[in-house]
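User: Teach me something about this protein's shape.
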Amino acid sequence: MKTKIFPVLCLFFVFSFCLCSLKAQEDEYQAPNYEQIKQDIAQKDGNFYYPTLVERLHQSDTTMTMEQLRALYYGTVFQSDYNPYGRCDELEKVLNLLQEGQPSKKDLKRALTSLKKLEAKYPTNLRIYFYKAIASLELYGEYSAEKAKAFNQLYMLCYAIMSTGDGSDYEKAFHIVATDQSYTLMAILGFSPTEQALHEHEGQMYDVFPLEENEAEIDELYFNVTPCIKYLDKVFSDEGIASDEPQSEVTIPLNSQFTLELVEDKKGSYKLKLIDIQRYTDTLCWDEEQKFDDLQPNIIQGYFCYADYCDKEDSDLDVVLIFKSNSATKYLQYDSALEYNRSGSFSPTSNVGAYSGTVITEMWKAKDGITAIRIGNFRE
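Assistant: First, the predicted structure itself:
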């Protein structure tokens, strides 16, 4: 994530103070009890009913207790639309608005209008409140009610996350419900990661980020991303492999074997239906010819995984998208974009198209930290 939207020094100092305060009370760090939270947020007559907590956040209700803030933030994983890897195109448009040089008042107002709508749709998305705080500060000023409300909302979510730890090791990792929020929190705190690695420790999953040199002299930060990985496990399970409705594009995590169906939308244009997706943790060998099934019409079968020259001991590992299509036409163009380090943002690739019946191969360096690919917009 780019952090040079506006000067964020004030945010850095405020949240560094918050982080130091929490460090001084590390005996109070507590991992979320998801089973208890699940029960609490379902009680309509209780103090933790989820819709009520969401409304209180929207109202910037600073009387919410830490327990209520934690129920709000970590209760996200039990909502029917929970997707820690989902893309929000509207939020990317807001970011583009804010990064266009010095945004005008008109741009700032447009950004805030969009962010208000996104709050209702994604009530615990940390990026929304980060952008809202910065835009409100720039548009309304340091002492405005609008700025105060936006900052309070951001504080409330950050306090919930930082109540779980200080990020210094596995035991005191920050617990997050969406992988891109680790980047947002680091940006708020003024840290820049140099790379990312996924670690397993005592049955929990962690993103570990070595940091660029910083005044706090912190070498790396730990984020517990177990709910996010469990979500992926569900995607790969029998109950989550298929999509009922064709979509213009689909997102495929790294280490996947997949089958897609091309569904004609209008003349010369197709949508995609995800028929099957399974984990594929082997490394494909460039030295061997890839075998694909005899495909039915308008079926695409492929892999998005690691590949290597398996007869060479020291060859560099690559990430490969390899697929074969049996489309109704001779040639289809398509678009694709890569996600790096589970950031939630996708960068377009130079892929152009595929001939029916041929094997298409695209590759990138594994060391770049690729974690998913989005493909779609198939057309003649």
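Now, about its shape. The radius of gyration is 22 Å. The longest helix spans residues 145-162. If you'd like, I can walk through any region in more detail.
User: That's plenty for now, thanks!
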